[in-house]
Amino acid sequence: MLKRIALVAGLLLALAACQDGSQRSTRHLVPIPASTMALMESKGMARNDPILIRSYKQEAEMEVWKRASDGRYALLKTYPICRWSGQLGPKVREGDRQAPEGFYTITPAQMNPDSAYFLSFDTGFPNAYDRQLGRTGSLLMVHGSCSSSGCFAMTDQNIAEIYAIAREAFAGGQRAFQFQSYPFRMTARNLAEHRLDPNIGFWKNLKEGSDTFEVTHEEPRVAVADARYVFDPGDAAVAAAVARKRQSDEQEVAALVAQGVRPIRLVYDDGGQHESFRKVLEASASADGSVTVDASVRSRLGDVSRPDALAAGPHVIYLDGSSGAQPGPLNLSYAAQKPMR
After folding, report:
1. How many domains does the chain have?
2. Range of the domain at 202
3. Which of 161, 245, 260, 261 is 20 to 30 A away from residue 14, measured at CA?
C-alpha cells in the first residue's frame, strides 16, 4: 500500500512540473550543426571547451557562453525562448508555475536524453539558496517543444543544439556548468523600471553575480549564507572592478529616475515568449484574439501551452501614483534585503 501511495505521489509531482518522461531515442547523439561549429572556430573556441548558460525571462532569450582560447568565457550564441510560464520573480512553491531564478549547477546526471519534451536538462531547483528559504518544486527543466509549467521551453531544434553543445563540453572534461537564470537583463533601465517591485532585493543580489561574471568573464564562485547568494571575486583587484561597475550602474539608475523613468510592474497572463515566436502565433489568431495551434504552428513549435495567455504580452502597471499605487523610497543600495518566501 505504501509503495502504491509513493508511486501515485511521484506521478502527481511529475504532472505538477514539466512532465519529463521516458522516450528511448538517439536524438541526444545528433552533432552540433556545422554553422555553429564554424561560429565556434571564428571565436577561437573548440568543440569540447567548457560552457556557461544565462537566461533572461523578460527578453525571452537564453545565451550559451563558451570558454575561448584566452581562458575567458565569450558569448557563443543567443537562442530565443519559446515559452516560460508564471511571472517575473523566483519560484517559491510547487505548483506556482514559476520558472526558477538564481544560480544553478548542471551535471551530466541532469541531462535527460529520453525526455518527453525531445531533450532536456534539469535546472537543479531547489538549490542550496532555495532550500534555505523553504522553497519547493521539482523537475524544472530546460527542454524542447513550446509548453511550460515552470520550465524553459526552447523548441526541439534549439534544445537539440544546446544539448549537443553541453554534451561535447562534458565529453571534454567539464564536470558541471553554471546556469544563471535572471528575470531580465541587468541593465540600468530595467533596474530603474523595476525598482519598486517586491522582488527587487533578490534581483539586486542576482546582479552581484551578474556583475562578477561581466567583469571577469569567468564562472562566478557561488555560495549561500544568511539566505543570500555570496560571490567570491577571487582577489582584491576583481572586487574593486566589480564595485566600480556597481557604483556606475547605480549612478545610471539614479540618472534615469531623475529623467522621469517610471517604475513599473509587468503582469503576465502566464509567462512569455520571444517576439519571433509570438509572431507565429499571431498569424493563427482569430478575430476575437483566441489562438488555434494548428498543424503548421505545431510543426514549427511543437505543443504550445496556453497560447491565448501569450497573445497579449505582459500588462504594464505603473507604480508612480497615476495607477493608484504610491511609490516608496528609492533604495539604490545593494545591502541585504529580506527575500520573498
Report:
1. 1
2. 17-257
3. 161
First to last CA, the chain: 35
Residue 314 in any domain: the answer is no
The verdict on whether 82 is a catalytic residue reads: no
CATH of the domain at 245: 2.40.440.10
Reduce the DSSP state of residue 31 to 3 states and report it.
coil
Q: Which of 82, 151, 194, 274 is catalytic?
A: 151
**Phi and psi for 160 in degrees, rounded to 5?**
-60, -40
H or E element at residue 179:
strand 177-182
Active-site option among 82, 143, 146, 274: 143
Please report the beta strands in 21-176, taking only residues with DSSP state E, as ranges in sequence order: 51-56, 61-67, 73-80, 83-84, 102-106, 111-112, 120-122, 141-143, 152-153
In the chain, the DSSP E strands lie at: 51-56, 61-67, 73-80, 83-84, 102-106, 111-112, 120-122, 141-143, 152-153, 177-182, 221-225, 228-232, 264-267, 315-318
pLDDT tens-place string over residues 122-148: 999 999 999 999 999 999 999 999 999
By DSSP bridging, strand 120-122 and strand 141-143 are antiparallel
pLDDT digits (tens, 9 = 90+) for 45-85: 999 999 999 999 999 999 999 999 999 999 999 999 999 99
Per-residue confidence (pLDDT) for residue 325, from 0 to 100: 42
**205: in domain:** yes
